């Protein structure tokens, strides 16, 4: 049951995420009449803005980041009227008093959106609590990074739990807000024909790729302390693994779905230090050309030497009955050849080919779920090439195509944050990450990092605009598997 709050408090209200995503998303919800009537939004950050100045700031962000066809003067005006502002220094306890005053009465419900450095979480929660912004009617949304290893994530979770029990804590993984990611559930559990082959008998391997063309952007301070494993694998890629690998939940609700995902995380095989060099590859981008444009190396952008990985490839295993022996190949990187998020499910080959050698090579079926930039689902199947075939029937791999882009062409694709902010405001936890999930994710990640340390592994250089270090190709080729679409 949805239970909307009357107020929203946005920390980090002047940051990059707020400008690009949060403000445009809240505006989108407002323009479509989806925000509760009278919902006020108090922005908060270090800068000293008046309400008026913050409204100007927000207007500029909307001008810059809203698509033209979404700009509507009246709607923008109405949206800006919801906005208020109060400066805060999270590390200064005394600045919470004025904030509480500005927010005012929270008996009608308050949702807080907190995105801050892990080191400030505890101070933020203590501050909120001390001024009465953590009671029964208040819920909190937490943006990553939620720590940098299991110990620090536990500390954050403990600190949060003092003010906010789990049912009022909403941990954000924006991948879960993406339509195409939710579509994995629709595909798997809304159709009958995948499920019988969705296991070690039917599937040979699973590949998950999140490739980006962007580099460091303006996030050197954060990224240097994170690296690709923490930034992308611990959260987004593992969530995709869970949606692919989980058992069918009984209901579409927060408890049922998160129970099943958590079981997958707990079933991830922990890597031993001996396995790390063979089962993982790390890389760091050097110079190169991305989409025809020459770009600098990571260390040049950073301005100093670094051993932070901007690419990682991993051979992972889900140790349970369904997935025994099925490798999950995972990879993500910055400055790669193309922007592409994709899941490729490679099915087992037919047990016997009646076509002999004459038919050409039979390719095992593959299901490709392209999450972005395009949205499609493709099943690669063998078909007969037209012809008289006097020397034997000829087969060729062809795609059965479901283009979500064209099938749902008239429907606007919402930003992931629209969905997540609305769920936070209305109190639906289904698409948020539960504490046991996060901690199991970190446990698995920490084992990998321990292996890197034990073996003194350093990232291998790869050219910007490539698909990562060649060792990443060798990682699958050793098993006779080729990364889809290289
Ligand atoms: C963020 C990472 O969580 O996800 C970024 O911190 C990354 O490094 C981003 O660029 C990718 O998100 P999307 O939605 O563009 O795939």
Automatic annotation (TrEMBL):
<feature type="binding site">
    <location>
        <position position="334"/>
    </location>
    <ligand>
        <name>substrate</name>
    </ligand>
</feature>
<feature type="binding site">
    <location>
        <position position="174"/>
    </location>
    <ligand>
        <name>substrate</name>
    </ligand>
</feature>
<dbReference type="Pfam" id="PF00479">
    <property type="entry name" value="G6PD_N"/>
</dbReference>
<keyword id="KW-0313">Glucose metabolism</keyword>
<feature type="binding site">
    <location>
        <position position="231"/>
    </location>
    <ligand>
        <name>substrate</name>
    </ligand>
</feature>
<keyword id="KW-0119">Carbohydrate metabolism</keyword>
<feature type="active site" description="Proton acceptor">
    <location>
        <position position="236"/>
    </location>
</feature>
<feature type="binding site">
    <location>
        <position position="144"/>
    </location>
    <ligand>
        <name>NADP(+)</name>
    </ligand>
</feature>
<feature type="binding site">
    <location>
        <position position="212"/>
    </location>
    <ligand>
        <name>substrate</name>
    </ligand>
</feature>
<keyword id="KW-0521">NADP</keyword>
<comment type="pathway">
    <text>Carbohydrate degradation; pentose phosphate pathway; D-ribulose 5-phosphate from D-glucose 6-phosphate (oxidative stage): step 1/3.</text>
</comment>
<feature type="domain" description="Glucose-6-phosphate dehydrogenase C-terminal">
    <location>
        <begin position="185"/>
        <end position="484"/>
    </location>
</feature>
<feature type="binding site">
    <location>
        <position position="178"/>
    </location>
    <ligand>
        <name>substrate</name>
    </ligand>
</feature>
<comment type="function">
    <text>Catalyzes the oxidation of glucose 6-phosphate to 6-phosphogluconolactone.</text>
</comment>
<feature type="binding site">
    <location>
        <position position="46"/>
    </location>
    <ligand>
        <name>NADP(+)</name>
    </ligand>
</feature>
<dbReference type="Pfam" id="PF02781">
    <property type="entry name" value="G6PD_C"/>
</dbReference>
<feature type="binding site">
    <location>
        <begin position="89"/>
        <end position="90"/>
    </location>
    <ligand>
        <name>NADP(+)</name>
    </ligand>
</feature>
<comment type="similarity">
    <text>Belongs to the glucose-6-phosphate dehydrogenase family.</text>
</comment>
<protein>
    <recommendedName>
        <fullName>Glucose-6-phosphate 1-dehydrogenase</fullName>
        <ecNumber>1.1.1.49</ecNumber>
    </recommendedName>
</protein>
<feature type="domain" description="Glucose-6-phosphate dehydrogenase NAD-binding">
    <location>
        <begin position="10"/>
        <end position="183"/>
    </location>
</feature>
<dbReference type="InterPro" id="IPR022675">
    <property type="entry name" value="G6P_DH_C"/>
</dbReference>
<dbReference type="InterPro" id="IPR001282">
    <property type="entry name" value="G6P_DH"/>
</dbReference>
<keyword id="KW-0560">Oxidoreductase</keyword>
<dbReference type="InterPro" id="IPR019796">
    <property type="entry name" value="G6P_DH_AS"/>
</dbReference>
<dbReference type="InterPro" id="IPR022674">
    <property type="entry name" value="G6P_DH_NAD-bd"/>
</dbReference>
<dbReference type="InterPro" id="IPR036291">
    <property type="entry name" value="NAD(P)-bd_dom_sf"/>
</dbReference>
């Amino acid at each position: 049951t949805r239970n909307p709050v009357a107020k929203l408090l946005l920390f980090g209200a002047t940051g990059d995420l707020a400008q690009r995503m949060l403000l445009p998303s809240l505006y989108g919800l407002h323009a479509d009449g989806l925000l509760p009537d009278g919902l006020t939004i108090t922005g908060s950050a270090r800068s000293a803005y008046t309400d008026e100045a913050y409204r100007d700031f927000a207007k500029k962000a909307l001008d810059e980041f809203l698509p033209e066809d979404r700009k509507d003067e009246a709607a923008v005006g109405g949206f800006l009227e919801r906005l208020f502002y109060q400066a805060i220094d999270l590390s200064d306890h005394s600045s919470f008093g004025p904030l509480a005053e500005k927010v005012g009465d929270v008996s009608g419900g308050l949702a807080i959106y907190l995105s801050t450095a892990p080191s400030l979480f505890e101070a933020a929660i203590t501050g909120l609590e001390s001024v009465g912004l953590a009671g029964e009617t208040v819920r909190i949304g937490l943006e990553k990074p939620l720590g940098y290893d299991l110990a620090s994530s536990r500390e954050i979770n403990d600190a949060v739990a003092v003010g906010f029990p789990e049912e009022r804590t909403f941990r954000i993984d924006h991948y879960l807000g993406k339509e195409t990611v939710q579509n994995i559930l629709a595909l798997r559990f809304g159709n009958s024909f995948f499920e019988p082959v969705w296991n070690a008998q039917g599937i040979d391997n699973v590949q998950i790729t999140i490739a980006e063309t962007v580099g460091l952007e303006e996030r050197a301070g954060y990224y240097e302390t994170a690296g690709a494993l923490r930034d992308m694998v611990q959260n987004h890629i593992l969530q995709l693994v869970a949606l692919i690998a989980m058992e069918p939940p009984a209901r579409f609700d927060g408890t049922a779905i998160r129970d099943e995902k958590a079981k997958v995380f707990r079933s991830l095989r922990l890597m031993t230090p001996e396995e790390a060099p063979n089962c993982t590859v790390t890389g760091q981008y050097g110079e190169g050309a991305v989409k025809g444009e020459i770009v600098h190396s990571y260390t040049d952008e950073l301005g100093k030497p670094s051993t932070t990985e901007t690419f990682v490839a991993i051979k992972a295993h889900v140790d349970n009955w369904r997935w025994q022996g099925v490798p999950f190949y995972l990879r993500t990187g910055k400055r790669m050849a193309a922007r592409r998020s994709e899941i490729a499910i490679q099915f087992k080959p037919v047990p016997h080919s009646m076509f002999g050698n004459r038919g050409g090579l039979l390719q095992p079926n593959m299901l490709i779920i392209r999450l972005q930039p395009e949205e499609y689902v493709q099943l690669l199947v063998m078909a007969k090439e037209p012809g008289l075939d006097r020397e034997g029937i000829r087969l060729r791999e062809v795609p059965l195509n479901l283009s979500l882009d064209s099938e749902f062409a008239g429907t606007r694709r919402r930003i992931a944050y629209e969905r997540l902010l609305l769920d936070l405001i209305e109190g639906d936890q289904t698409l948020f990450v539960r504490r046991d999930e996060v901690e199991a994710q970190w446990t698995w990640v920490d084992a990998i990092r321990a292996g890197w340390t034990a073996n003194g592994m350093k990232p291998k250089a790869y050219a910007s605009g490539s698909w990562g270090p060649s060792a990443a190709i060798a990682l699958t080729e050793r098993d006779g598997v080729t990364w889809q679409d290289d």
